[in-house]
Amino acid sequence: MKLSLPARFAKPSGDVNNSPSNLIMRGQNNSDAMSQTHHAPSIVYWLGEKLCLNITNRCSNNCYFCFKKYKDGIDQFNLKLVNEPTVADLVSQIAVQIHKAQWREIVFCGFGEPLTRLDTVLEVTKQVKLMSATPIRIDTNGQAYLTNKDRNVVEELKEAGVDKISVSLNAHNKETYNLACKPSFENAFDKVLEFIGKASACFDTEITTVTIPEVNISDIEELARSLGVKFRLRQYEQFFW
After folding, report:
1. Rounded Cα–Cα distance for residues 56 and 229 (Å)
2. Total-model pTM
3. Could you tell me which residues come within 8 angstroms of residue 107 by beta carbon, excluding any fewer than 6 positions away?
4. What is the three-class DSSP state of 162?
5. Is the pLDDT higher at 106 or at 29?
6. CB contact set of 61 (below 8 Å; sequence gap of 6+)
């Protein structure tokens, strides 16, 4: 499918804001960004006041707008893993960094879906909570009940000590979701809504949406209100310049 993006998604004039919070969905157009491929893969990295954990590159979605399709990482960090880190790998690197700054939160987010490694998330969370009271957030596509069948995912995350859940929902209905996100599971959209509903009862939960052309933003905002969760919009800019 060939996508024609509206003018509002064209390359902005003047300087591009390359602050860490905007690099998630925004391409960098400089030699420093391109040189990131020369760095060893990072399993612990940081964006502003967030300490981030890159635990897998696997994902049950294949979104056409995914950052990892166009870049190897963010800022100076290479997020293309050669091997998935063990719990010991993650904990040892977290221990080095956790007291070097006043981190606002610790976030499971990287170039994959963290809840494909549910047991790793649970164990790392438990061990991090022994080191620090910093809130722990999981950035997820919300398909954990599909990738972890017969598990009480939300309850297990709560028991481990997770504080916040951020669910990426980049469609207002099943048809749009299947088109834009290309999930591995046919019933993914419905299961994402189910996950959000369960998470909202236990966590500070939000829905995030990227402003791709296919999305009806007002419909997703209404969906977030109906589920009793927060809504956050993330700007998308095409990478082809």
Report:
1. 27
2. 0.83
3. 50, 51, 52, 53, 136, 137, 138, 139
4. coil
5. 106
6. 113, 141, 143, 181, 182, 183, 184, 188
Does residue 240 lie within any of the structural domains? Answer: no
d(CA 86, CA 84): 7
What digits encode the pLDDT tens for the residues 178-187?
Answer: 999 999 999 9
How are the residues of the chain apportioned to helix, strand and coil, as percentages rounded to the nearest 5? 35, 15, 45
Give me the count of residues in the chain: 241
CATH number at 94 reads 3.20.20.70
DSSP string, 58-95: --S---TT-GGGT-SEETTEE---SSPPPHHHHHHHHH
164-236-115-167 Cα dihedral, nearest 10 degrees: 40
Report d(CA 201, CA 214) in Å as an integer.
30
Asked if the structure places residue 241 within a domain, the reply is no
Number of domains in the chain: 1
Residue 30, C-beta contacts closer than 8 angstroms, at least 6 positions apart: none
For residue 184, give the 3-state DSSP assignment. Answer: coil
**136-167: b (≥16 Cβ within 10 Å) or e:** bbbbbbbbbbbbbeeeebbebbbebbbbbbbb
The candidate with the shortest Cα–Cα distance to 147, out of 119, 168, 123, is 119
